[in-house]
Write a structure and sequence with these properties.
Blueprint: H1 2-17, H2 26-39, E1 48-52, H3 58-66, E2 73-76, H4 79-83, E3 90-93, E4 107-113, H5 122-132, E5 133-144, H6 150-159, H7 171-175, E6 183-195, H8 198-207, H9 220-229, E7 238-250
Parallel strand pairs: 1-2, 1-4, 2-3, 4-5
Antiparallel strand pairs: 5-7, 6-7
Length: 252
């Protein structure tokens, strides 16, 4: 029941952010472009290409821009996000917590950008995705790791305020379900966002629908305290540092 309530909260927030998502998704776009740069180096066989947790189609659009003959199947649980995709693109409304849609077969490529940390059991689900690939197929995922948001965590520790950001996956927990032969690539990248203050920082998270938390809503005095103690740059602005892992798996 708890997972069901959580999933509905996440879906509601992404639905509410759908219309404005592309205007605020700078980090998602950055890593979508990086995923495409890796795709260009792979020899991908014939078969269906799918984007899991596709949202508004940001990654799928970038792939189709580079591979003009391919049509990416876009899968997401947010109807309003899918409606932001190109009119004639192939879209499937589906909750990935329930595995893959039954109609998905014969895939030579699966991609997923900024999705797996919203799933109830990402380690198991990612392995299930991989198992559905055809022989020689590739799975590429990009996601924030548990080392993201050090400034936020440090501020909460210093102020004795509960950290209300997500707990992101441990990279080694994802990898342990794969053999060394199946792991083609795994690398971490730092990405730093800068904001005038923490209010704009937190608003940026809401703007992409990623504000879902299992913690209590922060009170005004707590936010003011966080603003005071958050590490500042020379300009008195604040940073939010992400650690993003890109992993590429190949089915033998």
């Amino acid at each position: 029941m708890q997972n069901k309530i959580w999933n509905e909260t996440v879906k509601k927030n992404f639905n509410n952010a759908a219309a404005n998502y592309l205007g605020y998704s700078n980090i998602q776009r950055h890593f979508a472009e990086k995923i495409v740069s890796f795709l260009k180096e792979l020899n991908i066989q014939k078969g269906e290409w799918i984007d899991l947790g596709s949202g508004t189609g940001l990654l799928a659009d970038e792939i189709e821009k580079e591979f003009s003959t391919k049509k990416i199947t876009r899968i997401d649980f947010s109807k309003k996000m899918l409606l932001q995709n190109r009119e004639y693109s192939k879209k499937i409304l589906w909750d990935l917590n329930n595995g893959l849609p039954p109609k998905i077969r014969n895939c030579s490529l699966m991609t997923s950008n900024f999705c797996i940390h919203w799933l109830n059991n990402p380690q198991k689900i990612i392995r299930d995705w991989f198992n559905k690939l055809q022989s020689g197929g590739y799975l590429i995922i990009a996601y924030p790791t548990i080392n993201s948001f050090p400034e936020w965590k440090q501020t909460c520790k210093e102020t004795n305020i509960e950290y209300s950001g997500l707990t992101f996956p441990l990279s080694r927990e994802i990898l342990k379900n794969f053999t060394s032969e199946e792991i083609l690539f795994s690398n971490k990248y730092l990405y730093v966002e800068n904001f005038p203050d923490i209010y704009k920082l937190l608003r940026s998270i809401v703007n992409v629908g990623a504000q879902s938390t299992k913690c209590k809503r922060k009170k005004v005095f707590e936010l003011k305290k966080m603003q005071k103690y958050w590490p500042k740059r020379d300009t008195n602005s604040v940073n939010l540092t992400w650690e993003i892992n890109i992993q590429i798996f190949k089915k033998l």
